[in-house]
Give the backbone structure.
Amino acid sequence: MWAECAGLLYLARALDGAPMCGVLDARARMTERLTLGYREAVAVGDSAIAAAGTRTRGHEFHRTVIEPGAGPDPAWGLRQPRARVEGFVRGTVHASYLHTHPAGLPGAAARFVARAAEAG
């Protein structure tokens, strides 16, 4: 499963107290603060879309906070606006606020399809 932004929220346990899917052990809430900007990211570990160490660029655009901001196996390490890890990788799930683009993450679609085929 490849979930970005709203997909990340959908996989959480709850959004503003309303039940979501519960795939991720996290809860999200709406805020007044807009998080917006381009990000440089590196895959912290292997996931359904990227091998550990893969570098990409993407953007964030949301008015939510998810807690915790990263799982035990984070999806990405980000360098700006501050250094942090974010997102969740668990089995075939890759969930993150980061919006990626195929041009910036070559091979991600093929890797995702291959991982899905392996999972059955």
